[in-house]
Design goal:
alpha/beta, Rossmann fold, 33% helix, globular
């Protein structure tokens, strides 16, 4: 279906035409009509399927009618991270290019000047406010924002917000909103806590669920089965001998992000990290350097990486196996974009085998498991033992250098054989553990200068707009 077949405002269609967006993604095709009808909506779809446009386009179309209060906030969009807030705000600006609609992004981790800019935008009554929960509550506490006239409330990446502990903040904000409003909730997954939240804030919602897309065929997936102590050596071997460039390295925690980045820098490997302890200015600087190829390797967690929007990633490395199969698909989907080829490598310790096997079942395929690089030792058996313990590795209990109990980083020497000899020496209680891609920034132009600008304060649409076909 094309956008012109949907009941969108002419101003919105003009912006889409200028950016050469013509065809809807499934989530857009199914979401836009009920939102225009005024229905609450619960949408479940992967990141990268066009969810932001699925709610922004109909909301902007309704705001274009002029039937909403002037100089008041009419739409509040909540999201988990500052990077995503910036990205959504850029899309608001792009899609509303031919409309007299104003927007402001509100997020923490910045300086006093930025806070004053946010305060001024809120007090002037920006039509669309995109915010992270903590920062918005700060503005609410100081009386900088009036939500009494709100008509639209959107929760984007709701599962990530709950993972980050924002449930209570969300409920506090919901309590301040008018009861007569349209509420839209989008999530990449549907765990029990999301179902509970949906029942709390939605009224008779339309439910739309888009099946998790399998990774594109151009991603070459591999899994190195190894003992925990081997991971650093394998990682260094891959990054140096394979001369990898344009790499995102996913790690399970902020502490490990810092630690692994330090380890790589000590070995003269060009790496930088993204974590929540950095200021916004520092994070923006790192992202700019990475996009401009001044940094080869970016080390990040899932949550921070949600705001990363780069088309030319060549390799994704999972230092730790994600516990959720959909998170794995989201991670590796950051490579092989723009019809390029890409590589996804996962380091699988014995305690992670059970999670890797779940991922394989989800994708309905077995991931290639090559021999470890030369000099890195022998792989443990890729098998989940009874009682949830994996492989034949049974290292002694205790903290490894990442501070986790039950790991085998210091217990499994290199050269361990698959025949179980290590199991005789080391016993412990170690716990077990397509639609064609069309890039976000491809084939897009800003509106022609010959078109009449309808709001002189607007800037040209940003290139960082929501993807129009699934790819993550």
């Amino acid at each position: 279906m094309t956008f012109t077949e949907l009941p969108l405002a002419d101003e919105v269609l003009d912006a889409l035409d200028a950016m050469r967006f013509t065809t809807c993604t499934p989530i857009q095709e199914q979401s836009i009509p009920p939102i225009i009808e005024g229905r609450d909506l619960l949408g479940v779809a992967q990141t990268g399927t066009g969810k932001t446009a699925a709610y922004l386009l109909p909301i902007l179309s309704k705001l274009s009618s002029g039937d909403y209060p002037q100089n008041h906030t009419n739409c509040l969009i909540m999201c988990p991270t500052r990077e995503l807030a910036q990205q959504i705000d850029q899309q608001v600006e792009a899609f509303s290019y031919y409309m007299p609609v104003s927007g402001v992004a509100v997020y923490g981790g910045n300086d006093g000047i930025r806070y004053e800019q946010e305060k001024n935008g809120l007090r002037l009554g920006a039509d669309i406010v995109t915010a992270t929960p903590g920062r918005l509550l700060s503005h609410i506490a100081t009386g900088n924002v009036d939500l009494s006239q709100l008509s639209f409330f959107v929760l984007d990446e709701a599962d990530r917000m709950l993972d980050m502990g924002f449930y209570d903040d969300i409920i506090k904000i919901v309590a301040l909103l008018p009861k007569e409003r349209q509420t839209i909730l989008f999530s990449a997954t549907m765990p029990q806590n999301i179902q509970t939240l949906a029942k709390t804030i939605l009224t008779d919602p339309v439910e739309i669920k888009i099946a998790v897309a399998k990774p594109v065929e151009k991603i070459h997936q591999m899994a190195y089965v190894c003992y925990e102590p081997m991971k650093d050596k394998i990682l260094i071997n891959l990054l140096t001998k394979e001369q990898m460039d344009r790499v995102i390295l996913f790690v399970s925690s902020k502490l490990k992000v810092k630690e692994i980045t330090r380890m790589l820098k000590m070995r003269k490997i060009d790496a930088e990290c993204m974590h929540s302890d950095l200021t916004q200015a520092e994070r923006d600087e790192i992202m700019l350097r990475f996009k401009n190829r001044h940094i080869s390797i970016l080390v990040a967690t899932d949550i921070v990486a949600r705001g990363i929007d780069i088309d030319d990633i060549q390799t994704v490395i999972n230092y730790d196996v994600p516990r959720d199969g959909e998170d794995y698909i989201h991670r590796i989907g950051r490579t092989a974009r723009a019809n390029r080829e890409g590589e996804a490598i996962t380091l699988v310790s014995p305690s992670d085998i059970v999670y890797m096997q779940r991922i394989e079942r989800l994708m309905e395929r077995e991931i290639e498991k090559p021999q470890l690089p030369e000099g890195c030792g022998e792989s443990p058996e890729y098998k989940v033992a009874r009682g949830g313990r994996s492989g034949k590795d049974r290292g002694k209990s205790g903290k490894n250098r990442h501070g986790r109990h039950g790991g085998n980083r210091s217990n499994a020497p290199e050269g361990t054989h698959k025949n179980g000899e290590l199991a005789k020496k080391h016993k412990s209680n170690a716990k077990s553990q397509n639609q064609p891609a069309n890039p976000e920034n491809q084939g897009m132009t800003t509106p022609s200068k010959t078109k009449k600008r309808r709001h002189k304060s607007k800037n040209k649409p940003s290139a960082n707009v929501e993807p129009q076909t699934p790819k993550e």
